[in-house]
Amino acid sequence: MATQTLSRPQQDQTVDQKIQELRQLYADSPVGKTALENSIPALREKLAKGLRSNESAGRVGLRQGKVSELTLIFKFVPGGAKRLRALLQVMGANFGTEKVATVHDQRFVFLDNDTKLLFATAYDGDSWDTYLDEFATKIPDELDMLFSELEEFPGFRDPSVKDWIAKYQIPAENWYVAHPDLTVRDIRRLKRIGKAAEEFLDKIG
Amino acid sequence: MATQTLTTPKQKQTVEDKIQQLRQLYADAPEFAKTALENTLKDLASTAAQPRSRMESAGRTGVRQGTVSELTVIAPFAPGGAARLRALLQLRNGNFDDTDRVGTVHDMRFVFLDNDTKLLFATAYDGDWDIYIEDFVAKIPNEMDVLFSCFEGWPGIHNAKVKDFIANHQIPAEGWYVAHPDLTVRDVHRVKRVGKAAEEFLDKIG
């Protein structure tokens, strides 16, 4: 998604046009139509503020502020779902993830009768490449164990691994983050400051 | 997923049993995966014993780690639904201050699947499933209908069946990790304020 460089009047015009297009599209949705009309004033207000936007996270995916999204759907190899489930039951979804310290959250969801895996994560940084490089450097064994359950996985030390991931990534159409100004490390720092402030106030209190 | 209430010796035993099971399951995995498993088993044992990595139920469906829960829904689009939603999302371009107002959503994504025939909606939110949904119904019903009327069979946010609709299409995660499971969205607002105040204070005395 390109960065917006339109002037204010141009933007307003675009918004009007888009709202008109929306009305046409929603004409055949009974529930949606009324709801759209009711929400147009608020929608305009929101867009006028223009506080947030979605930008590219690099090779694939969207970013809002400092936080990007990555959504993958892979096919399991035979027996892969069974092994991964057992693995997740033992260790939860923390695959040395804390060592990397750029992951806000991540989920593993099994789809279509255990034939496919949905992996979705929120991570720090404006570069898809840097994010994956960091994983490959810090926890290659954990990643190999995890992803070896998936079809065509080349191994995390193989240079083609990024192409493999890009091939199965489905970029989001929209991405929202409550605190786009904070990385995982920023939050950690703020927690420490908060704790220190409390201790300080306790001492002088 | 049931809450773990085992005593520590029992937990250790369970972890060892599970690791044994894992080794058996990995017997027919590719060689590099077996090696990777062995390489990480040491870490694995300590990770598995850590309370922070434990997942609990988020209520009706889905899992929770600490205060943060996951919700993953995949449902077919109604005819024309994908085109409507795409136009709406393009207009919004990441603007969701209505979601800010609800104040319990860490992140959310809309992903179109299988040639625009299905929508994947995935979010990280604070607390219990029922309360979370009720909060949305109470605070931004219109926005919910505009977004989710793209689904085939969406009953409408004010319909009593809306929770069943969501639950029926939700697929609970098998694994869920959160970097800061101790912080709600509102907690993060608070620590930001404290951080700012502390900086200002230090500036003044500095």
Write the layout of secondary structure elements.
The complex is a heterodimer of chains A (205) and B (206).
Chain A: H1 8-26, H2 30-49, E1 55-56, E2 62-64, E3 67-75, H3 80-91, H4 97-100, E4 103-111, E5 116-124, H5 128-138, H6 140-147, H7 161-168, E6 174-177, H8 184-204
Antiparallel strand pairs in A: 1-2, 2-3, 3-5, 4-5
Helix pairs in contact in A: 1-2
Chain B: H1 8-25, H2 31-49, E1 56-57, E2 63-65, E3 68-76, H3 81-92, H4 97-102, E4 105-113, E5 118-126, H5 129-139, H6 141-148, H7 162-169, E6 175-178, H8 185-205
Antiparallel strand pairs in B: 1-2, 2-3, 3-5, 4-5
Helix pairs in contact in B: 1-2
List keywords for this structure.
heterodimer; A: 2 domains; B: 206 residues; alpha+beta; Alpha-Beta Plaits; five-stranded antiparallel β-sheet; 8 helices; 6 strands
How do you describe this structure in short?
Chain A is an alpha+beta fold and 205 residues long. Chain A is built from 8 helices and 6 strands.
- Given helix and strand content, the structural type of chain B is alpha+beta
The biggest sheet of chain B, with number of strands, parallel, antiparallel or mixed sense and barrel status, is: 5 strands, antiparallel
Average pLDDT number of chain B: 86
Low-pLDDT stretches of chain A are none
CATH class of the largest domain in chain B: Alpha Beta
What does it look like?
The complex is a heterodimer of chains A (205) and B (206). Chain A has 2 domains: 8-51; 56-168, Alpha-Beta Plaits (2-Layer Sandwich). Helices cover 50% and strands 18% of the residues of chain A. Chain A is built from 8 helices and 6 strands, in the order ααβββααββαααβα. Chain A has a 5-stranded antiparallel β-sheet. In chain A, helix 1 runs antiparallel to helix 2 (30-49). The termini of chain A are far apart. Chain B has 206 residues and is α+β, with helices and mostly antiparallel strands. Chain B has 2 domains: 8-54; 57-169, Alpha-Beta Plaits (2-Layer Sandwich), CATH 3.30.70. Chain B has helices at residues 8-25, 31-49, 81-92, 97-102, 129-139, 141-148, 162-169, 185-205, and strands at 56-57, 63-65, 68-76, 105-113, 118-126, 175-178. Chain B has a 5-stranded antiparallel β-sheet with strand order 1-2-3-5-4. In chain B, a hairpin with a 4-residue loop joins strand 4 (105-113) and strand 5. Chain B is globular and about 50 Å long. The termini of chain B are far apart. The interface between A and B is large, with 92 and 95 residues.
